[in-house]
Structures are given as structure tokens and as C-alpha cells.
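for the writeup, i need someone to sanity check this before i put it in the appendix. the sequnce is what the collaborator sent (i think, or maybe the updated version? ugh). structure was predicted straight from it, no edits. if anything looks off just tell me and ill rerun, i have time this weekend
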Amino acid sequence: MKKGGKGGANTNRGGLAFESKTDLAARIKRDLNMTYKLIEHKYKKPPLIKSTAKVYDIYSKIDQHLIGIITKQMQFYNILEEKYQVRNANHKKWKPDEVFFNFDANTIFIVEKKWQQGSGSVDEKIFGFVNKRRLYQNDFNQLSHEPKPTVEFSALFNSSWWIYGLKNTMENNDLEKYPRKNEKQYQDYFDNLRIDGVKIFFDNYDYWWFGLYY
């Protein structure tokens, strides 16, 4: 997650807090605990890349079958090798903020988080999301058998800035009382992301997009 925009260390702290607050595994444990259970993943052999990011297997509580794996950052490449027996096909290794390997849907859902407290270079960088999706798709296009997994890409924004234009606001309580002064400013950005097939979230996840339900 890039910490662009104005604010220096404050923006960095805000971005890290936003990442933690929107941790996908933690959100699923909180909101979908009646339907799914998460168990820490155990690698069959030592992973290729060392990473402190957590990896979880997600099971259905209805029939106990393994639905998929949730992870982030460089652990993406460890799961790529363990489950698909391929390595990164690109010259650069990206570090996705959240990844859900949904084996049932044969789909990999990737989330890029963008917390802002002011305008900056990230305004333009978000247009690169569609190309990132293509790069991640390259990894799975190496497989020789069909159907190959499809990569779906999403962006998670903090509405306090991207919609309401508020600075130094971490909590999203009572945001509706403020004017939505940034909504029109960024409307072309959001609409073009949607044209490119990027799913947009504000503050929270739509679980159905990941193929998960209450």
C-alpha cells in the first residue's frame, strides 16, 4: 500500500492503521463467523519467501470443506508455488494488500488499499490497477490446463477523504453529516476504474464479491 499524498509520517500512520482496521481475515472472523472458520495455514515444506504476514485456510462450517486461502504481501508467492506449482512470471514482485484464493470459484481476489488525507501522486497511480491485474494474471496463465484461475482486482478507499474530503480523520462515524465535497472531484477516477473491471469498496467489504455470504 502506497502512502502517497501530503502529510508525511501522519499519512504513513494513517495508512497503516487503515490496513489493520480493514484486515480481511479479521473482518471475516468478525462478520461471517457463523458461516466460516479460519485456521492458520501450515505449509507442507518451508516456503520460498520469508514473510511475517499471516496465512489462513478458510473452511465452510456447513460441510467443513476448504474454500480457499487468505493472505497478503509476499505470502502470495508462497501460496502460488505451493498450490499451483508455479513461480512469479513477472520481473517484479508486487505485494498485494489482501489476497483471497477462492478454490471453489477458481478465482483469485486481490485488494489494493488506498488511504489518503490529501491529494497527491496516488491520484494518478490508481489508474495502474488494471495493469496490475494483468501482471497478476500472468502468474496463473503459466498453467497448462483449463480452466485457469481468473484474477479479479479491487480497490478499497477511505471515504473520509475520497468522498468527503476530510483530513486527519481516522474514524468514519457520522460521516454523513459532512458535505461530500470530494465525490465529484474523483467521480471520473472511480468510473474509469469500473470501466476497467476494478471493484470499488469504501471502508468496508462487500463479501459477496469474494463469493462469501452470511
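The radius of gyration is 18 Å. DSSP finds seven helices and seven strands in the chain.
thx in advance!!
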